[in-house]
Amino acid sequence: MKAALYLSLCTVAVMLAGCNSSPGPEKVSTTKSSLPSIATNMNPIVIKSDEEWKKQLTPEQYEILRKKGTERAFTGAYWNTKDKGAYRCAGCGEMLFVSDTKFDSGCGWPSFYAPAASNVIAEAKDDSHFMSRTEVMCSKCGGHLGHVFDDGPNPTGLRYCINSGAIQFEAESKEKK
Ligand SMILES: [Zn+2]
């Protein structure tokens, strides 16, 4: 009996962890973690007060980047974007991902198998929502971006599951000035 209950709980946890980093049906939900996140390579260069971020960002960007919120699947601006270009941090403008590494994960969030450079992403353990996940942040401003999972495609096997609200797309033609 206990084993059956445990199994069903595990199944639910696996289902939640699999392709879905959104814990509920609400549009933007805030992660309430009782454990402090420990960033591995975080040393933010851009440091602003909460009030400054609120002024600079849209409410949705603020909720995701500064409050670790998650947009609902298939609602963000970029989950299905296939254009060539770069994805910059919506908080500080750092180039975080390029379209060459974007792939269709079917998850409803923009997914990349690698960051634009190895030092632009900071990671932290995230044990909220009864899941053990790896949170990814912009290493320059500390903004929450999403999570990284190890079920991605070659060559890295990683899947950076990123909120559209945390990034801003810049089409390639615009880059070549
Ligand atoms: Zn940033």
Give the percentage of residues in beta strands: 25-35%
Structural class: alpha+beta
Ranges where pLDDT stays below 50 over 5 or more residues in a row are 9-27, 29-38
CATH class: Mainly Beta
Helical region count? 4
Ligands bound, unique: zinc ion
The geometry reads as globular
Question: Would you identify the CATH H-level superfamily?
Answer: Peptide methionine sulfoxide reductase
Order of helices and strands: HEHHEEEEEEEEEEH
How many strands, what sense, and barrel or not for the largest sheet?
A: 6 strands, antiparallel
**First CA to last CA: what distance?**
66 Å
Q: How many β strands by DSSP?
A: 11
Sheet with the most strands: spatial strand order = 5-6-10-9-8-7
In the CATH classification, which architecture applies? Beta Complex
Share of helix, binned: 10-25%
Q: Under CATH, the topology is which?
A: Metal Binding Protein, Guanine Nucleotide Exchange Factor, Chain A
Q: Output the radius of gyration.
A: 16 Å
What number of domains? Answer: 1
Mean pLDDT: 84
Can you give me a brief rundown of this structure?
Helices cover 20% and strands 26% of the residues. With 177 residues, it is of the alpha+beta class.
Notes on the structure:
The protein contains four helices and eleven strands; from the N terminus they run αβααββββββββββα. It has a single domain (2-175), classed as Peptide methionine sulfoxide reductase (Metal Binding Protein, Guanine Nucleotide Exchange Factor, Chain A, Beta Complex), CATH 2.170.150.20. The protein has 177 residues and is an alpha+beta fold. The protein has helices spanning 2-19, 50-56, 59-65, 172-175, and strands at residues 28-30, 69-71, 85-89, 95-98, 102-103, 111-112, 121-126, 133-138, 144-149, 159-162, 167-171. The N and C termini lie far apart (66 Å). A hairpin with a 5-residue loop joins strand 3 (85-89) and strand 4 (95-98). The chain binds zinc ion (ZN).
